[in-house]
Write a structure and sequence with these properties.
By secondary structure, this protein is an all-beta fold. It has no helices and 10 strands. It has a single domain, classed as Rieske [2Fe-2S] iron-sulphur domain (Rieske Iron-sulfur Protein, 3-layer Sandwich), CATH 2.102.10.10. The radius of gyration is 13 Å and the shape is globular. It starts with a strand and ends in a 5-residue tail after the last strand. The protein binds FE2/S2 (inorganic) cluster. InterPro entries: Rieske_2Fe-2S, Rieske_2Fe-2S_sf.
């Protein structure tokens, strides 16, 4: 059973921003949009570029390498939703962002 793991102080992730953290040996992208925090595997499924350097436009994140665009809420590639970035459950508690990466 996976448990909640500390990722970042909530104040370090302002609205409309992304951040990269290492949790459980994995690089995770965090993004806050409309007050909600999303967590995704920080690696583009195309050729592996780190997504936290991409451009955020609402819920859409554009990969910095070849402009593939993903929806933060589902991890889906917008023009081919069968291509998906793994997304992780997130919660905020007492000023901390916690997430579950699964598998542990
Ligand atoms: S590596 Fe992300 S679009 Fe190519």
């Amino acid at each position: 059973m996976s448990k909640w793991i500390y990722a970042l102080q909530a104040e370090q992730l302002p609205e409309g921003k992304t951040s990269a953290v290492k949790v459980g040996g994995q690089s995770i992208l965090l993004a806050r949009v409309a007050g909600h925090v999303y967590a995704l595997h920080n690696e583009c499924p195309h050729l592996g570029c780190p997504l936290h350097r991409g451009r955020l436009d609402g819920f859409l994140l554009q990969c910095p390498c070849h402009d593939w665009v993903f929806d933060l809420r589902s991890g889906e590639f917008t023009i081919a939703p069968e291509i998906k970035i793994p997304v992780f459950p997130v919660r905020e508690e007492r000023g901390e962002i916690l997430l579950k990466t699964g598998g542990e």
